[in-house]
């Protein structure tokens, strides 16, 4: 079965950085768009970022563009998200997600089929 296991979250001060990882298994990783979604306390699930099959084209929500970097290593079945210049509003549970095989760029939460348990990112002031 599809398994997505996130790691790398933690407590960091505003302005700091973290690198999240997602270990994927149970499917052919290299043929799926992958992405990250997050859920802040009391907020709705929010799409954060996506990346194409080959890892050459990233997409970002306006809220994180310029601060986060998504990447993937298909040889390792691993997805990454580098979070830089963190602000307190970035505090959330971050989930790695497998995109549905849709004919458009997956920029919405509903465009994702599977997601992992998540890794908590807490940004302190």
What does the secondary structure layout of this molecule look like, with pairings?
Elements: E1 3-7, E2 10-13, E3 18-25, E4 34-39, E5 46-51, E6 58-60, E7 68-73, E8 78-83, E9 92-99, E10 112-115, E11 119-124
Parallel strand pairs: 2-11
Antiparallel strand pairs: 1-3, 3-8, 4-5, 4-9, 5-6, 7-8, 9-10, 9-11
Mean pLDDT across residues? 97
The fraction of residues in strands falls at over 45%
Largest sheet: 7 strands, mixed
N-to-C SSE string, H for helix and E for strand? EEEEEEEEEEE
Radius of gyration: 13 Å
The termini sit apart by: 40 Å
- How many helices? 0
The low-pLDDT segments are: none
Protein structure class: mainly beta
How many beta-strand runs? 11
Shape: globular
| Helicity level | under 10%
Please explain how this structure is put together.
- The protein is mainly β and 125 residues long.
- The model has no long low-confidence stretch (mean pLDDT 97).
- The strands form two sheets. Strands 2, 4, 5, 6, 9, 10 and 11 form a seven-stranded mixed β-sheet that branches.
- It has strands at 3-7, 10-13, 18-25, 34-39, 46-51, 58-60, 68-73, 78-83, 92-99, 112-115, 119-124.
What keyword list fits this structure?
125 residues, mainly beta, 0% helix
Question: Concise description?
Answer:
With 125 residues, this protein is mostly beta strands. Helices cover 0% and strands 50% of the residues.
